Task: inverse folding
C-alpha cells in the first residue's frame, strides 16, 4: 500500500491512518470528513491492508451503500488501486439490478469485498447459507450513513447488523459521512447495544471552503414558482463555461422540465443527460458511464446523485430552486471538484423571493458549519416484522434469543416483550381479525419451541416482495419492441389516452396504448406535457426556516439582498409589518370578492398542508364558509366567503385532539400509510412468481384489509404503525404541534384593506391551481404582475 501511494505522489491523510489504527485495535469507528477527503478509501484501507498481509478465502468486508449507483461507482474506483497493486482481491456489487445467476454464484463463492444496499443485505440474510456465508465476516462499512440511519432503511440495516454480529462476533462496524450534525447520535446507532464508547470518532481534515454564488435573474427575482426555469439561459451559459456540470433538481418532474428547457436553449448542441430514480437501469447506467468517461457537459439529476458518486471532471454544481436544507446543499456542492484542497463551485437558482432568502440562509449556514439536526426515533414495527420473517426463512429461531438479538439494534433497544410478542403473532397468523385465513399463517411454533416458516411458498413470497422503499403504484414506460425507459406513477399514467404526449427520459413520447402495468409509447416530435409525481415533497428544514425568520426581521441584513427583494420587504413593512423571529404574522384582507387569511409560520410545506386541512374544517364548523387553501414552505393562505376576525381561535392546540384525529382517520393519508406498512410488513405482496400486481390491485387488497381491521381490530399492530407514519412523515406533526402550541402567545394579527407584498407569492398559487395544466402560463404571469402591483402600491 505504501508503494502504491508513493507511486501516485500521494501520502495517506491523517484520518486515513487513524482509521487504520482503529481497525488494528479492533475498534468500531465513525469517520466524519469533508467530501473529497478520501472517505471511501479510508473505510476500505484496513480491509486492503488485512487482505494483503493475511489473504483469506470468502467474504471479508461488506460495503453498504444507500444508492445502487454509489455501489457501482465505488466498485469502479476501488478496482483501480487493487489492479495497480496486483493483489488477488475480488470486488463485486449485489443490488436489485444484479443478474440472478451472479447472485446465486455470490452465495456459493462470495468475493472478498461485496458492495450492496440494506435491502439486498436483508435478502441475503433470508437464505439458509447466510449462516456460513457471513461466519468469517470481518468488517461492515456503511457509506453516507446520514442518508438512511434515521429512517426505516436505517432500522432494517441496524437489525441486519445485529444479526451479522451474532453470526460473526468479531465483526467491526465502520460508518462514513461528510454531513453529520450529531456524531454521538450516529456512534450510538452504529454501536452494538448502542454502547457509544465502543465506537471511535475520527474527524477528517477540513477541506477548502466552497465557492457558492446565488444566480440573480437578468430581470427581477420572480414573485412565485420554485423551478428556477426563468434562469435557463443563464444556467446554459454556466454549462458552456465549465467542463462538466451537475444540475440538481428537488423532484423528478422538475428534472424532466429543466432538461427539456435546457435542451431548447442549447444552441451549441452540447451533450446533456438526465438522471433520476424512475428511469430504467439501462438509462441510468448509460448516463453514469457517460459522465465517468467525460462525454457529458451536463447532467440534470435529482437526489439519485446526491451522494458520493465521484466524477473527477465535475467542476460546477447548480441547484435549481432552494436547497431546503444546509446538509443537503453541502452534499450536492461536494459533487463538484471532488478534491479536498480545491473549492467546490456551486450556483443556487432561487425560484422566488422567499427562496432567495432561503438560498442566502443556506449559504450562511454552510459557511458557519451549521448542519440540519438528525432526529433518531424508535424503530418501525413493520420493518421489524419483515426482518424477523427474513431470519425465519434462513433457519428456525427461538423467540427469546431473537428478542435479545433485536434489542442489540439501537432503534429497538427499548422494545417491550409485549410489543415483540404482538409482532411475532402478526407474522404467525395476521392478528385476531385475519387468523381464519391460511394465507396469513406464515410462522408456526414447533414442539421444540422454535418458530419456523409454515410452508416453502411463504419463503419465495418473502424474497420476491421484501423491501423498505414503497413507491406509489407505477406503470412501466416502454417501446413496443420491449425496451424499457423507466416508470411513471399510475396516477399520472391513468390520465393518458392513446395519442397523448409527455416528456420522459429526455424524450417526447406519444402513448400508443395503456395496459395493466405498462404504458406503450413511441418517440414523437410533438410538444408534450411534463410528468408529475406525487412523491414526498422536500420541506424547508427548521434550521433554515429560523435563519429566514431572522433575515426578515434584521433590517441590517437587507442590504445584502437584490434591490427588488429589498423593496419588497420595505413596502411590506410600510403596508403591514415584518414579524419578529418568534412571532407568527397573520394577515387578513379582502381580494377579488373573497376574504383571505395568510399565516407566515415557516414550518414547511407538509405542516402547512395539514394545517390548511384542519383550519378549513374548523372554519366550516364555525360558519366561516371556507372555499379552499394553498400553502408553500413559508406561509398558508385560506380563503372563504366570511371575514375571519379572530384567527387565534383557528390555531388552538386542541385542533390536534379533535379535527386532526378525525381528518387523518377519514382521509386517504391513513390508507396510504397503511398500504406502505402492509407491504413492508409482508401482509400484502406486490409480486407473485412470474407476474406483478398492478398498483390498483395492491391498493384494492390493502384497502379491503384496512376496512376490516378498522371495524374489527382497531388496535391492530399495522394500524398503529400506519398511524405513526401518517403523523410523523406525511403531516410533519412535530412542527405542526409546535406551531399550534405557540401560536396563541406569538400571533400578530394585521387586518389590511388589501393584499400585502409578502402575501403575493402564496396568493399567486390560487391562480395557478385554477389554471388547466399546460395552458395559460402567460395569463398566470399577467395575473401575478397584477396582484404584485396592487400589493406594492403605497397609497
Result:
Amino acid at each position: 500500500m505504501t508503494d502504491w501511494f508513493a507511486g501516485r505522489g500521494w501520502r495517506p491523510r491523517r484520518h486515513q491512518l487513524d482509521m487504520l489504527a482503529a481497525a488494528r485495535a479492533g475498534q468500531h469507528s465513525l469517520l466524519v470528513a469533508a467530501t473529497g477527503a478520501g472517505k471511501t478509501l479510508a473505510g476500505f484501507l484496513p480491509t486492503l491492508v488485512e487482505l494483503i498481509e493475511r489473504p483469506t478465502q470468502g467474504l471479508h468486508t461488506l460495503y453498504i451503500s444507500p444508492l445502487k449507483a454509489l455501489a457501482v461507482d465505488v466498485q469502479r474506483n476501488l478496482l483501480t488501486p487493487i489492479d495497480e497493486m496486483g493483489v488477488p482481491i475480488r470486488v463485486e456489487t449485489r443490488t436489485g439490478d444484479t443478474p440472478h445467476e451472479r447472485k446465486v454464484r455470490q452465495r456459493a463463492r462470495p468475493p472478498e469485498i461485496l458492495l450492496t444496499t440494506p435491502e439486498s443485505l436483508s435478502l441475503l440474510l433470508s437464505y439458509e447459507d447466510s449462516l456460513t456465508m457471513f461466519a468469517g465476516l470481518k468488517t461492515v462499512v456503511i457509506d453516507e450513513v446520514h442518508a438512511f440511519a434515521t429512517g426505516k432503511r436505517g432500522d432494517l440495516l441496524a437489525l441486519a447488523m445485529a444479526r451479522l454480529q451474532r453470526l460473526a462476533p468479531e465483526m467491526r462496524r465502520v460508518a462514513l459521512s461528510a454531513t453529520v450534525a450529531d456524531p454521538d447520535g450516529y456512534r450510538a446507532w452504529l454501536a452494538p447495544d448502542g454502547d457509544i464508547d465502543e465506537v471511535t470518532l475520527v474527524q477528517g481534515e477540513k477541506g477548502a471552503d466552497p465557492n457558492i454564488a446565488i444566480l440573480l435573474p437578468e430581470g427581477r427575482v420572480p414573485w412565485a414558482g420554485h423551478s428556477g426555469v426563468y434562469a435557463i439561459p443563464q444556467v446554459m451559459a454556466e454549462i458552456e463555461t465549465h467542463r462538466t456540470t451537475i444540475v440538481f433538481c428537488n423532484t423528478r418532474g422538475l428534472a424532466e422540465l429543466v432538461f427539456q428547457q435546457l435542451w431548447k436553449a442549447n444552441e451549441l448542441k452540447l451533450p446533456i443527460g438526465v438522471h433520476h430514480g424512475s428511469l430504467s437501469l439501462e438509462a441510468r447506467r448509460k448516463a453514469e458511464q457517460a459522465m465517468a468517461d467525460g462525454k457529458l457537459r451536463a447532467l440534470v439529476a435529482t437526489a439519485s446523485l446526491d451522494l458520493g458518486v465521484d466524477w473527477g471532471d465535475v467542476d460546477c454544481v447548480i441547484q435549481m430552486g432552494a436547497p431546503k436544507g444546509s446538509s443537503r446543499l453541502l452534499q450536492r456542492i461536494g459533487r463538484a471538484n471532488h478534491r479536498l484542497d480545491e473549492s467546490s463551485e456551486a450556483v443556487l437558482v432561487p425560484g422566488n423571493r422567499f427562496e432567495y432568502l432561503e438560498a442566502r440562509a443556506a449559504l450562511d449556514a454552510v459557511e458557519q458549519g451549521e448542519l440540519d439536526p438528525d432526529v433518531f426515533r424508535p424503530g418501525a414495527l413493520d420493518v421489524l416484522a419483515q426482518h424477523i420473517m427474513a431470519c425465519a426463512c434462513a433457519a428456525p429461531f427461538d423467540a427469546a434469543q431473537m428478542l435479545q438479538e433485536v434489542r442489540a439494534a439501537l432503534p429497538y433497544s427499548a422494545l417491550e416483550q409485549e410489543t415483540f410478542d404482538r409482532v411475532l403473532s402478526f407474522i404467525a397468523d395476521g392478528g385476531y381479525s385475519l387468523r381464519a385465513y391460511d394465507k396469513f399463517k406464515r410462522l408456526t411454533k414447533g414442539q421444540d419451541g422454535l418458530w419456523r416458516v409454515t410452508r416453502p411458498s411463504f419463503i419465495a413470497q418473502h424474497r420476491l416482495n421484501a423491501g423498505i422503499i414503497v413507491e406509489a403504484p407505477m406503470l412501466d414506460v416502454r417501446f413496443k419492441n420491449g425496451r424499457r425507459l423507466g416508470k411513471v406513477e399510475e396516477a399520472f399514467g391513468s390520465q393518458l389516452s392513446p395519442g397523448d404526449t409527455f416528456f420522459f427520459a429526455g424524450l417526447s413520447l406519444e402513448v400508443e396504448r395503456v395496459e395493466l402495468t405498462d404504458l406503450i409509447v413511441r418517440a414523437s416530435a410533438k410538444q408534450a406535457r411534463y410528468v408529475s409525481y406525487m412523491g414526498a415533497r422536500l420541506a424547508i428544514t427548521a434550521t433554515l426556516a429560523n435563519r429566514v425568520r431572522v433575515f426578515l426581521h434584521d433590517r441590517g441584513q437587507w442590504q445584502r439582498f437584490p434591490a427588488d427583494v429589498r423593496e419588497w420587504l420595505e413596502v411590506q413593512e410600510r403596508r403591514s409589518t415584518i414579524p419578529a423571529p418568534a412571532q407568527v404574522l397573520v394577515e387578513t384582507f379582502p381580494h377579488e370578492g373573497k376574504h383571505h387569511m395568510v399565516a407566515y409560520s415557516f414550518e414547511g410545506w407538509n405542516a402547512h398542508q395539514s394545517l390548511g386541512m384542519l383550519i378549513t374544517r374548523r372554519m366550516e364548523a364555525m360558519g366561516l364558509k371556507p372555499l379552499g387553501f394553498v400553502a408553500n414552505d413559508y406561509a398558508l393562505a385560506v380563503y372563504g366567503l366570511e371575514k375571519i376576525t379572530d384567527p387565534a381561535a383557528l390555531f388552538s392546540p386542541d385542533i390536534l385532539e379533535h379535527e386532526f384525529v378525525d381528518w387523518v382517520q377519514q382521509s386517504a393519508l391513513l390508507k396510504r400509510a397503511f398500504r406502505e406498512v402492509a407491504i413492508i410488513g409482508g401482509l400484502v405482496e406486490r409480486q407473485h412468481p412470474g407476474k406483478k400486481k398492478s398498483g390498483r390491485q395492491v391498493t384494492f387488497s390493502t384497502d379491503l384489509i384496512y376496512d376490516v381491521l378498522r371495524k374489527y381490530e382497531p388496535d391492530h399492530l399495522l394500524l398503529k404503525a400506519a398511524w405513526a407514519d401518517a403523523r410523523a412523515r406525511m403531516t410533519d406533526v412535530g412542527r405542526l404541534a409546535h406551531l399550534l402550541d405557540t401560536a396563541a402567545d406569538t400571533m400578530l394579527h394585521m387586518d389590511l384593506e388589501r393584499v400585502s407584498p409578502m402575501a403575493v407569492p402564496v396568493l399567486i398559487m390560487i391562480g395557478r391551481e385554477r389554471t388547466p395544466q399546460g395552458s395559460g402560463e402567460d395569463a398566470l404571469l399577467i395575473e401575478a404582475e397584477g396582484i404584485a402591483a396592487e400589493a406594492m402600491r403605497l397609497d
Observations:
- The chain has five domains: 1-203, 211-368, 378-469, 474-530, 544-652+732-792.
